[in-house]
């Protein structure tokens, strides 16, 4: 046993400790918010912070089944609607980005045009621009086109988030598809669309899963578009969480519970597609 321990190199120990520290750094905020969602208000504001406390589900009940006696302005009819709105907006945005982004990424991957790198970078630049730089012109345009407080308008504006991600992620995957397979399909009489749908897309399916999950999470977490371009009928869950802030104080327990509930859809999607996600994120590393 001692000889086995002595064979462990210092580098292995340092790497293991580094991974452990990084895991704690990433996971601890989530654990802290979850603990906060199970605390009474007096335990949340206690100093020094309490790590041992009596858990309660009052914050979750107040968010989902809030009443006037609890002082909550958003009950189940509101917060569940916020979740539903986010599912419609993010799901619709990802679906539209998939329909547009897959052919665009495939054409860029197979194009021999010299400016294709510039075109691809142009799509990526949509992610560089700060949202505050375009939100005021968009607000005026949406008012003129009657797109304000509509799901169609929010799905379209979320293309600034999801479409560049889908195109850039799928661009690398389509480049990994052997061109010989596509040439064989063309020899058999397949056209470009048949090659894309029946040959290329089945091969890069894990990449599609990873691209859609990442795009969905980025769209789901967006605040500024929903805050400015959504009204009472289409406000997403990120705006709904702000309803836990009253004029006199911030209900930290309610906010933590609302944040944990809002994180559930993204977690469920990531868990469901976990096999494809891991394979998709590592697919482009090896040939």
Walk me through the structure:
The protein has two domains: 68 residues, no CATH class; 210 residues, MetI-like fold (Orthogonal Bundle), CATH 1.10.3720.10. The protein starts with a helix and ends with a helix. The radius of gyration is 24 Å and the shape is globular. Helix content is 73%, strand content 0%. About 3% of the residues have low confidence. Helix 5 crosses helix 12, helix 9 runs antiparallel to helix 12 and helix 10 packs antiparallel against helix 11. It has 287 residues and is mainly alpha-helical.
**Helix/strand structural class:** mainly alpha
What is the H-and-E element order?
HHHHHHHHHHHHHHHH
Overall outline = globular
**Number of structural units classed as domains:** 2
Provide the residue-averaged pLDDT: 81
CATH classification class of the largest domain: Mainly Alpha
CATH superfamily of the largest domain: MetI-like
- Which CATH architecture of the largest domain would you pick? Orthogonal Bundle
Helix content class: over 70%
Distance between the termini: 40 Å
Question: Rg from C-alpha positions?
Answer: 24 Å
The number of helical elements comes to 16
Reported for the largest beta sheet, the result is: none
């Amino acid at each position: 046993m001692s000889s086995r321990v002595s064979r462990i190199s210092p580098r292995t120990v340092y790497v293991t400790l580094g991974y452990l520290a990084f895991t704690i750094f990433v996971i601890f905020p989530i654990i802290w918010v979850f603990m906060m969602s199970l605390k009474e208000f007096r335990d949340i504001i206690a100093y020094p912070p309490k790590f041992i406390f009596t858990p309660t589900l009052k914050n979750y009940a107040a968010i989902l089944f809030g009443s006037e006696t609890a002082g909550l302005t958003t009950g189940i009819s509101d917060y569940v609607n916020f979740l539903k709105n986010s599912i419609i907006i993010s799901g619709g945005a990802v679906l539209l980005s998939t329909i547009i982004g897959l052919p665009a990424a495939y054409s860029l991957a197979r194009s021999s045009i010299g400016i294709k790198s510039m075109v691809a970078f142009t799509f990526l630049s949509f992610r560089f621009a700060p949202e505050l730089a375009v939100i005021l012109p968009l607000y005026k345009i949406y008012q003129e086109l009657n797109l304000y407080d509509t799901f169609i308008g929010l799905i379209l504006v979320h293309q600034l988030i999801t479409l560049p991600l889908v195109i850039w992620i799928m661009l690398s995957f389509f480049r990994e598809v052997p061109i010989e397979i596509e040439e064989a399909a063309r020899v058999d009489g397949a056209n470009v669309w048949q090659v894309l749908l029946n040959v290329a897309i089945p091969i890069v399916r894990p990449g599609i899963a990873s691209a859609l999950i990442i795009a969905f999470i980025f769209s789901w977490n967006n605040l500024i578009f929903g805050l400015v371009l959504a009204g009472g009928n289409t406000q997403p869950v990120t705006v709904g969480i702000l309803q836990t802030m009253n004029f006199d104080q911030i209900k930290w327990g309610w906010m933590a519970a609302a944040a944990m509930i809002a994180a559930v859809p993204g977690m469920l999607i990531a868990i469901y597609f976990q096999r494809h996600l891991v394979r998709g994120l590592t697919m482009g590393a090896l040939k």
